[in-house]
Amino acid sequence: MVKVYGSPKSRSLRITWLLEEMGQEYDYQAIDFTQADHRAPAFLAVNPAGKVPAIQDGELVISESAAIVAYLADRYSGGSLIPAAGTAQRARFDQWSYFVISELEQPLWTIGKHKFALPEEHRVAAIMATARWEFQQALSLLSQGLADNDYLLGQQFSAVDILAAQTLLWGLWFKQPIEQPNLQAYIERLKSRPAMAAAAQRELKALPR
Q1: Which of 177, 160, 209, 202 is nearest to 190 (CA)?
Q2: If pLDDT is split at 50, 70 and 90, which confidence band does 209 have?
C-alpha cells in the first residue's frame, strides 16, 4: 500500500487527491509542522529536505509532488489519468506539469517563504510585489493555454489538472486575484470533484486535535 506523508493545505493534497480519483487505498501519515514533525529523525530519513509530500511504495521512496503524481498515475491509473509515454499528449502533460512547478507555483512559494517559511532574518518584504506580478504573468499564460477547453489536455481530465488546480487554490488562499473567467470556471470545475473533497477531509482528520 502507498504511504503518503502530508499536511493539510500543502502540496500533499495533489497526491491524496490523485489517489482518491483512482480509488487507490493509501496510508496517510500526517506531518504536523507546528509540532516539528518535519524535523523528526524518522521523517528526515524519508525526505532529508523535511518537506511534504513524500511517498513510500514498497521499497521506493519519492519526494517532489510532480514526480509523485506522474509515477502514481503511470502505475495505478491504467492510463486513464496520464497519457502514454512518447505520445504528443504525454509531451503536453509534461509541459504543463513543468509549467505549474516552475512558473505558476514558483511566485506563490516565494510569497510563502517570505511571509512565514523562512527564518525572519532571511525574509525580504520588497520581493512580494515582484512575486505577485510573476504570478499574474503565469496566470495569463495558463489562461491562454486552457482557452475554451474544460481541462489542460482538452476535454479529458488528467492528473496534470490536479497539479494546476491545487496551485490555483493555493493562490486563492494567498489572496491573489484570479480574474480570467476561464480559470475561474476551471477552478470551480475541479473543486467540485468528489475526490478533491475526500482528500482534503482525509488530511484534516489525520491531524491530532
Answers
A1: 160
A2: low
